[in-house]
């Protein structure tokens, strides 16, 4: 698949809540995932390798109840693309309901996503 | 200004149609601006230097009538941020009315934006 095909598949799978399938099929084993900032209680800001990124996803799912999700894009540029994510979730440990609004920048190499970087502002 | 302050100012000025003021105050003289693809009749895909980028902006304004604009974001990550742009415009030479939907990735260095990259799909 070329970058735009990967990008469209990514949006399709995430829009259906099939995030783990996206990780298994579209990402490279040695991928790197980088958050915008360190978060208390969360995995490291930078995760290396598919296993670590899956563990981060499992941590996130265990700690958040999703009320609704909106995925927008993709917007491509050469071997990269951007996707928008908006989530209405309850953070289970605190019981606080929050609206998450972020953009993710993906980099593709040899037909797989090798890097994902999340852009957001925790300052609100 | 730090990256988030620059990002917020960028969104504020572009939201008010003050794009040239944004270029004059927030961007470095030797900035680089890169489109997602080459476009017929447009300036080069990659423009180097504030003067070339301003000329591209003037070309765009001369060739499009803006009916409405929506600017979203910014979403920051270290020294970069993403902004969303949606325009409802008429392409003056063809008379065709089009909805443009793109994301832009900005890179900041020493308090100025040094690189802007536009992400979009001309394939629709």
What is the highest CATH level, the class of chain A?
Alpha Beta
Our Rg estimate of chain A from Cα atoms comes to 14 Å
Intertermini distance of chain A: 37 Å
Q: Please, how many domains of chain A?
A: 1
- What average pLDDT do the residues of chain A reach? 95
Task: Name its key features.
Nuclear Transport Factor 2, Chain: A; 124 residues; homodimer; alpha+beta; globular; 3 helices; six-stranded mixed sheet
Describe this structure in words.
Two copies of one chain form a homodimer. With 124 residues, chain A is of the alpha+beta class. Chain A is built from three helices and six strands, in the order ααββαββββ. In chain A, a hairpin with a 2-residue loop joins strand 5 and strand 6. In chain A, helix 2 runs antiparallel to helix 3. Chain A is globular. The model of chain A has no long low-confidence stretch (mean pLDDT 95).
């Amino acid at each position: 698949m070329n970058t735009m095909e990967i990008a469209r598949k990514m949006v399709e799978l995430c829009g259906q809540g099939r995030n783990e399938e996206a990780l298994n099929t579209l990402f490279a084993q040695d991928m790197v995932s980088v958050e915008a900032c360190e978060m208390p209680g969360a995995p490291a800001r930078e995760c290396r390798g598919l296993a670590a990124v899956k563990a981060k996803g499992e941590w996130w799912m265990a700690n958040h109840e999703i009320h609704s999700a909106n995925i927008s894009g993709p917007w491509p540029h050469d071997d990269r693309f951007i996707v928008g994510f908006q989530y209405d979730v309850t953070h289970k440990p605190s019981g606080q309901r929050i609206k998450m609004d972020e953009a993710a920048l993906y980099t593709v190499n040899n037909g797989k996503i090798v890097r994902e970087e999340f852009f957001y502002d925790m300052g609100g």
